[in-house]
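Continued from yesterday's entry.
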Amino acid sequence: MDLYKRYYASVVDSLSNNPRQVCTKTLRRMSTVGDSLIYYHYMTLLAKAYMFTSDVDSALWCMERAEAFCIRSAALLSVHSLYAEVYNMRGNLYARQGRLDSSVVCFHRAFDHRCAGGDKDVLPDISINLADAYVRTGHYDKGAMWYRKALSYCDSLGVSDRRRFPVYYGLATVYMQLRDFEACDYYYDLAERYYDDMQPYEQHIYLNNRGNSYYFREDYPMALEMFRKSLRLSCAYPDLEFEKHLTELNMGETFLLMNCVDSAACYLSLCSDFFHSIGNQTALYYLDTQLIELALKQGDVGLARRRLQEAVTPEYVEPGMRHIRNRYLQHYFAETGDFKRAYYYQVENQRIDDSTRNERIRMRTAEIDLKYKQDTTLMKQKIFIQQKENEVLVLNQMLYAGLFVCVLVLALVIFIYVYQKKQRSLLWMKSQSMITALRMENIRNRVSPHFIFNILNREMGKYTEEQAGNMRRLVKLMRRNLELTEQLCVTMAEELDFVNTFIDLERKALGDRFVLHVGIDSAIDLNREILPSMMIQIPVENALKHALLAKEGMRRLWIEMRKTEGGICIKVRDNGGGYKVSSNFQGTSTGMKVILQTIQLLNAHNRRHIDVSVSNVVTEDGETGCEFAVILPEGYDYNLK
């Protein structure tokens, strides 16, 4: 259903602009959906598109299939929304065919099903349809009531003003029929503000109805101006065929009233074939009425007689249309010399005028009464809501006061706790600093490294060149080791220099079968990139001590550094048979503990963490070895806060 709603929202604007494209897209989607509730929702959308193309038979077929599914699935709560769509479409179809009482019944059923189904978002649209139907049946008070209900639903649902223009031009139509042209123009002016936001068929409704308002005021030039705008609009959209011919019919009558007989004949002939093809009884009655008067104004009484004999007579004729027909019949019988019947239609029109005037007064009174009741009800609701809001406001104030006290107490407790914790932390750090200082002073007092280095340098003068070289490397290693113990992080160049010095000292023990492979990515600047000290040296020492010294055959050690996405990857790998839990050369693991503790300390101050892994791998020669891998994230902060 969510997919259907998103699809409906994407094509609803295209229903009037390009309904055939909507038909094609909807049929394609229906082919992927089985016989289900969603399938028939697509079918009702297809019926709407057919209605806009004036393909009434296809629209009716779609509605009948959807209704049959509703009857089969009446027990489902979710079927109410589909029922509402079906009845709403039937109401529109009946309204177009002039079967107005049936359309009212269908719109009421659509409204009830929408309320039962819980989908209230479309209640304004159904209310507008129901109001339109009541207006067309002459129940202007009920029409105004449902228009105002639509406005009330728009307020409740938070519908923007830009979507309320159908209500505005609907109320304008009501006041036009009640001949309150001041109120009529007020609502038409409200609707006109949002003309550019209207769909083409809505623009036609606005222009056509506003043209009718000038027609009733007998301001035929202004009415003609509105009808011409409507005709230009409908000609720009091929799918507004019904609207186009309806406008031509209105223009034909307007020209007839202005005694422009040729123009009237032209426009009435343009729309005649269309209304006969769709069998719209109301439109045909209206058309035949104009054709009778046209023949009389052309001086062809015989043609007028023939058209009168062939004219259709619907079951229900609006009083306004009957009044126009009677006026033209009075003219016809006066032309034929039958003054008795001419007088009859004159008297009949006077009766209709009196009845219509009385009905308008009654409707206006009923409309004012309904408006007063509605306004009174709304006022009572607003007063009730205001009282409840005041009660809620008092409760909220009490709640906020209680919450403020609680928050204040909680803040005080947290402050005391944090203060005491900070004091304890400071005391602990001071004690640790004192212990460390004492230990360092104790070490310095026991042994002076510089004293040892001076003795070793003096003794190296007694050794051979080879022995002296080894001793110098040892002294360098010891000096560098002392320096590194004082630094948390070093550059990669410094770390590699230390590692190379260490390996040079161990080469004699490793023998000629030892091979070192060093691979460094050219994109890495060794003098700028830093890492925790001993990060490479400790894995190298472990590889030499626990894997390669006791290995038979070739002894290989790989040190690799390469750029990766978001950091640098360092790997130390050997071919010493891999890590074994039961090995006799496990050692104390002090070196790895130092690495892991250092990393844990640094990671606590960084969002992205250094990742370390130790695993057994197969080397290029097919031998098993141990690989130490570490990933240093880009932008890592090595400063402890």
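--- second protein ---
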Amino acid sequence: MLRDRVAASDPGLLRLAAGLRTVGAIALTLAVLGVLGVSVPHLVAGAIAAMVATFAIREKQRARQAVTLALGLPVALVSMSLGALLSSRVLAGDLFFVALIFCAVYGRRFGDRGTALGLIGFQIYFVSLFVGASVSGLPELYGVLGVAFLCSAAARFLLVPETPAGLLERLREAFRVRLAQLVSAQLALLDAGPEEIDSALKDVREGTARLHETALMIQGRLEEGTSDAGAARLVQRRVADAEIAAERLGLLLLTARSSERADTLTLHLPGAPAPRPGRMPGRDEAMNRVRRDLEALRLLVLRPVAARSGTALSQVRNRLLGYREEENLPPAPPAVQDVFRGVGEAARAVLGLRIALDGPQDESDDSPATARSREELDAEDAVIDAGEEDGGTQEELTGLRRPTTRAAVQVAVGSALAIVGGEFLSSQRWYWAVLTCWIVFINTASTGEILVKGYRRLLGTVLGVLAGIVLAGAVGQHTWTAFALVLVLVFAMFYTAPLSYTLMSFFVTAALGLLYTLLHTYSLSVLVLRVEETALGAACGVIAAAFVLPVRTDRRTNDLLVTVLERLDDVTEAAVDQLSGGSPEELLDRARDLDQALADLRAATQPLTHPITPLRARRDTARYVVALLETCAYHARSLAATAELLPTHPSIAADPRLRRAGRRIGENIAAIAAHVADERSTARVETGPSIASLLESEVPGTPRFGRVTDRVLRHVQRLDETLVGLARPLDVPVATPGR
């Protein structure tokens, strides 16, 4: 279904809304200014100002958006005025531009509003240079800016409105669709032959990652999109349950395909070998039933059970939930029976998700197994604590150690270099080098990130110049045709920006080629100069990042790695303590903090894992370490989710013996973190008896595991093994037993 595909490819329709909102603001501005009969340069200024006023504002609350937009207009007016006043004073204008850039970047420390106002100030000053603003033309330019900001407000609040509740609802729908797509990918993995297995496993990995991405997006929008804190906690819990159940089902399917248990790392490491099919007596008949049940699970995710009783879908739901009872499991090898259990748990997670998102469901056709699942969900809902956890205080960096201050100094130095170099290339269009230097620093924090971003921008610019030549030749001097194409390119720019920085640079450069045509300054030499200025700006940004208060990529990744390990220790310690009989704590929020820290680390390692990197061994190591950490995060999330079931789940009870296993895991995490922070650390990772042996009772006749489920043991064991595996690529000493 097309709607589902769009919802899955663009969760919350964020990219579509951003593109439509920006294009709507520009189109409305052009329409108003066209009726007023302003000149083409002022049309160009209004279009760019409307675009800036729209995309600069990133706050989530509508009231805050309105305040920031209102404050942005006087900032824009001042910036345009200074641009016109200083246009004839080269030295003063250059010095002010550098100071403006410093202030704009430094303003990021004041949050979204500071970032937006700094961006508006910089971009409008750039517009004044682009259209050649003069003092005599300021009154008309003031009117153009006023129209642009009013049209931006109309597009934001009237044409393409966005409410937190509406956005959260679209994100929930995207989660459902992506969950269904993941189940489809798992079904394809089950059927894949020897030649197709690697491709099918890749699809499962991507589906798992996309589902996790959507869960994090929902987490970030819950507070604003839900008025009731209890409802927000419920949605958070059910989304986490569904995500974990789906990931676990993928692992069970991998195991069922082979004669050995699949390694968790297989789902997280690109290029990891896929388990090959093994022979099991009676497996083919059971697998046919698994296929049917996976298809039924996918339908349950996408379609609500009808209100009338006796429907086929309600019967399917009852059958799948019945797999949670041992007596309802079909005859099959143990590994395949685990898959049926996983399907039952996934069906329970889907039921809980439906109740949390859509409200109470029809219960007239419930089987006993379904009724028991509902009772468990109701009991869990009753104990969800809507209270807020007090946040810990963090040490605030000061002076040049503060990232925003350091970045402001770096951008100011890089921009000064770009101004000097740009003047040598062109006294009229030197500002393109400054713009590139500015842009490569946005959302980057290390020299490697800036280098990769500069490379991508240069590549997109070169390709965009070629497209600009073709489009400018085709459009000629047809003003409104050119503006129509600019709108198409702007939409494409915003729609592709989160996906590919190279594509975004391509579309913006092609649009600029059309704007040059409208300003009667188009020529091949101008577009070639655009490439030269872009290369110069990127080079200046890299030089500033490398020599002015540099943050090396390995230093940043090490800092983020320590943060991930600290979050992992926090989640694991709290979950194991609760599973051991400790007092209940907030676990899901801690798990999401771990996920966010891991996402930051994954982004920071992109320069190390980029295809152009010459250090192949380092690239493979970075990928392997991130994959190991993703595996650790999966097991930590699963432990946290299981620990939160303790008050309500009849088959899970606290076992004090788990503390011994948790103690070793915590000490190993601390040892790895200490070594990453300081290579001279003498801390070692300890190995020893298996987790199961650590739980052996010291009292004869006591059951081996008490009521701790095998699933808990498996997660703890895998976490312990993965940490030992993580120590080796990080060169952390591993102490063997007896030494």
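DSSP finds 27 helices and two strands in the chain. The first strand starts at residue 685 and ends at 686. Will compare against the first tomorrow.
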